[in-house]
Amino acid sequence: MAHLAQAEFKSLGIAVLTISDTRIESNDTSGQYLADALGEAGHRLIDKNIVIDDIYQIRAQISQWVINPEIQVILTTGGTGFTVRDNTPEAVSILFDKDIEGFGELFRQISYTEIGTSTVQSRALAGFINRTGVFCVPGSTNACKTAWQKILLEQLDSRQKPCNFAPHLKA
After folding, report:
1. Which residues does UniProt assign to the signal peptide (predicted)?
2. Does the global pTM surpass 0.90?
3. pLDDT (tens digit, 9 = 90+) per residue, 103-115?
4. What radius of gyration, in Å, describes the C-alpha atoms of the chain?
Protein backbone atom coordinates (compact mmCIF):
# COMPACT_ATOMS: atom_id res chain seq x y z
CA MET A 1 0.00 0.00 0.00
CA ALA A 2 3.01 2.32 0.01
CA HIS A 3 1.94 3.47 -3.45
CA LEU A 4 -0.99 5.27 -1.80
CA ALA A 5 1.30 7.84 -0.18
CA GLN A 6 2.88 10.74 -2.06
CA ALA A 7 6.18 12.49 -1.37
CA GLU A 8 4.61 15.95 -1.60
CA PHE A 9 1.75 17.41 0.43
CA LYS A 10 -1.46 17.83 -1.55
CA SER A 11 -3.71 20.61 -0.28
CA LEU A 12 -7.35 19.49 -0.31
CA GLY A 13 -10.44 21.62 -0.79
CA ILE A 14 -12.63 21.15 2.28
CA ALA A 15 -16.11 22.33 3.29
CA VAL A 16 -17.33 22.44 6.90
CA LEU A 17 -20.99 21.97 7.80
CA THR A 18 -22.31 22.60 11.29
CA ILE A 19 -25.62 20.85 11.91
CA SER A 20 -27.46 22.47 14.79
CA ASP A 21 -30.74 24.04 15.81
CA THR A 22 -28.95 26.41 18.19
CA ARG A 23 -25.62 27.42 16.65
CA ILE A 24 -25.02 30.60 14.71
CA GLU A 25 -21.72 31.87 13.29
CA SER A 26 -20.80 33.73 16.50
CA ASN A 27 -21.10 30.65 18.76
CA ASP A 28 -20.13 27.87 16.34
CA THR A 29 -16.93 26.87 18.14
CA SER A 30 -16.88 23.35 16.65
CA GLY A 31 -17.23 24.38 13.03
CA GLN A 32 -14.76 27.20 13.54
CA TYR A 33 -12.26 24.82 15.14
CA LEU A 34 -12.43 22.53 12.09
CA ALA A 35 -12.10 25.47 9.69
CA ASP A 36 -9.06 26.80 11.56
CA ALA A 37 -7.44 23.37 11.97
CA LEU A 38 -7.71 22.41 8.31
CA GLY A 39 -6.20 25.75 7.31
CA GLU A 40 -3.31 25.30 9.75
CA ALA A 41 -2.68 21.88 8.18
CA GLY A 42 -2.35 23.46 4.73
CA HIS A 43 -5.75 22.60 3.30
CA ARG A 44 -8.16 25.12 1.76
CA LEU A 45 -11.52 26.02 3.30
CA ILE A 46 -13.80 26.23 0.26
CA ASP A 47 -17.07 26.81 2.10
CA LYS A 48 -18.56 26.79 5.59
CA ASN A 49 -22.22 26.74 6.51
CA ILE A 50 -24.66 26.07 9.34
CA VAL A 51 -27.95 24.23 8.76
CA ILE A 52 -30.63 23.16 11.20
CA ASP A 53 -30.83 19.48 12.06
CA ASP A 54 -33.26 18.65 9.26
CA ILE A 55 -32.65 15.62 7.05
CA TYR A 56 -33.48 17.43 3.82
CA GLN A 57 -31.50 20.59 4.54
CA ILE A 58 -28.47 18.45 5.44
CA ARG A 59 -28.83 16.39 2.25
CA ALA A 60 -29.34 19.51 0.13
CA GLN A 61 -26.16 21.17 1.37
CA ILE A 62 -24.05 18.04 1.06
CA SER A 63 -25.46 17.35 -2.42
CA GLN A 64 -24.48 20.85 -3.54
CA TRP A 65 -20.97 20.39 -2.22
CA VAL A 66 -20.31 16.92 -3.66
CA ILE A 67 -20.90 18.22 -7.19
CA ASN A 68 -18.52 21.16 -6.63
CA PRO A 69 -15.22 20.17 -8.26
CA GLU A 70 -13.25 22.28 -5.73
CA ILE A 71 -14.55 20.32 -2.72
CA GLN A 72 -12.85 16.99 -2.07
CA VAL A 73 -13.77 16.58 1.61
CA ILE A 74 -16.79 17.56 3.71
CA LEU A 75 -16.54 17.69 7.49
CA THR A 76 -19.80 17.82 9.41
CA THR A 77 -20.19 18.49 13.10
CA GLY A 78 -23.37 17.85 15.06
CA GLY A 79 -26.49 15.74 14.86
CA THR A 80 -24.83 12.39 15.59
CA GLY A 81 -26.46 11.63 18.94
CA PHE A 82 -29.77 9.96 19.80
CA THR A 83 -32.14 12.84 20.46
CA VAL A 84 -35.17 13.30 18.27
CA ARG A 85 -33.35 16.16 16.49
CA ASP A 86 -30.13 14.19 15.79
CA ASN A 87 -30.52 13.23 12.14
CA THR A 88 -27.07 13.39 10.57
CA PRO A 89 -26.56 9.61 10.10
CA GLU A 90 -30.02 9.19 8.58
CA ALA A 91 -29.51 12.19 6.29
CA VAL A 92 -26.01 11.36 5.10
CA SER A 93 -25.55 7.58 5.10
CA ILE A 94 -28.13 7.03 2.37
CA LEU A 95 -26.01 9.22 0.07
CA PHE A 96 -22.83 7.16 0.50
CA ASP A 97 -21.44 5.30 -2.49
CA LYS A 98 -19.06 3.55 -0.06
CA ASP A 99 -19.00 3.50 3.75
CA ILE A 100 -15.80 4.03 5.71
CA GLU A 101 -16.79 1.81 8.65
CA GLY A 102 -13.42 2.10 10.33
CA PHE A 103 -13.79 5.84 10.87
CA GLY A 104 -16.68 5.58 13.32
CA GLU A 105 -15.15 2.56 14.99
CA LEU A 106 -11.79 4.26 15.48
CA PHE A 107 -13.41 7.51 16.62
CA ARG A 108 -15.33 5.68 19.34
CA GLN A 109 -12.23 3.70 20.39
CA ILE A 110 -10.20 6.88 20.80
CA SER A 111 -13.12 8.72 22.38
CA TYR A 112 -13.51 5.95 24.96
CA THR A 113 -10.15 6.95 26.47
CA GLU A 114 -11.48 10.51 26.83
CA ILE A 115 -15.15 10.13 27.87
CA GLY A 116 -15.53 6.48 28.81
CA THR A 117 -18.66 4.58 27.94
CA SER A 118 -20.48 7.76 26.88
CA THR A 119 -18.77 7.21 23.54
CA VAL A 120 -21.42 4.60 22.65
CA GLN A 121 -23.82 7.52 22.20
CA SER A 122 -21.77 8.83 19.27
CA ARG A 123 -22.91 7.83 15.82
CA ALA A 124 -19.85 9.28 14.06
CA LEU A 125 -19.65 7.99 10.51
CA ALA A 126 -17.92 8.52 7.19
CA GLY A 127 -18.12 7.55 3.56
CA PHE A 128 -17.54 8.58 -0.02
CA ILE A 129 -20.09 10.38 -2.19
CA ASN A 130 -19.01 11.09 -5.76
CA ARG A 131 -15.36 10.60 -4.71
CA THR A 132 -15.84 13.23 -1.98
CA GLY A 133 -14.88 12.13 1.53
CA VAL A 134 -17.61 12.94 4.04
CA PHE A 135 -16.75 12.71 7.74
CA CYS A 136 -19.51 13.27 10.31
CA VAL A 137 -18.49 13.90 13.92
CA PRO A 138 -20.33 14.94 17.08
CA GLY A 139 -21.05 18.59 17.76
CA SER A 140 -18.81 19.17 20.76
CA THR A 141 -15.59 21.02 20.13
CA ASN A 142 -13.68 18.32 22.04
CA ALA A 143 -15.10 15.65 19.72
CA CYS A 144 -14.03 17.72 16.70
CA LYS A 145 -10.54 18.03 18.17
CA THR A 146 -10.39 14.26 18.73
CA ALA A 147 -11.50 13.49 15.19
CA TRP A 148 -9.18 16.05 13.61
CA GLN A 149 -6.04 15.58 15.70
CA LYS A 150 -6.16 11.80 16.05
CA ILE A 151 -7.61 10.64 12.72
CA LEU A 152 -8.28 13.21 10.02
CA LEU A 153 -5.06 15.23 10.21
CA GLU A 154 -3.08 12.14 9.21
CA GLN A 155 -5.57 10.49 6.90
CA LEU A 156 -6.10 13.68 4.85
CA ASP A 157 -2.33 14.12 4.46
CA SER A 158 -1.21 12.72 1.11
CA ARG A 159 2.20 11.89 2.63
CA GLN A 160 0.79 9.61 5.35
CA LYS A 161 2.19 6.09 4.99
CA PRO A 162 1.33 3.40 4.27
CA CYS A 163 -1.93 4.91 3.01
CA ASN A 164 -4.34 7.82 3.31
CA PHE A 165 -7.59 9.06 1.77
CA ALA A 166 -6.05 11.54 -0.71
CA PRO A 167 -5.74 9.12 -3.68
CA HIS A 168 -9.40 8.13 -3.33
CA LEU A 169 -10.71 11.70 -3.62
CA LYS A 170 -11.70 13.46 -6.81
CA ALA A 171 -8.83 15.35 -8.44
Report:
1. none
2. yes
3. 999 999 999 999 9
4. 15
Over the stretch 52-89, which tens digit does the pLDDT of each residue have?
Answer: 999 999 999 999 999 999 999 999 999 999 999 999 99
Hey, what domains does the chain have and what are their CATH numbers?
Answer: 11-159 (3.40.980.10)
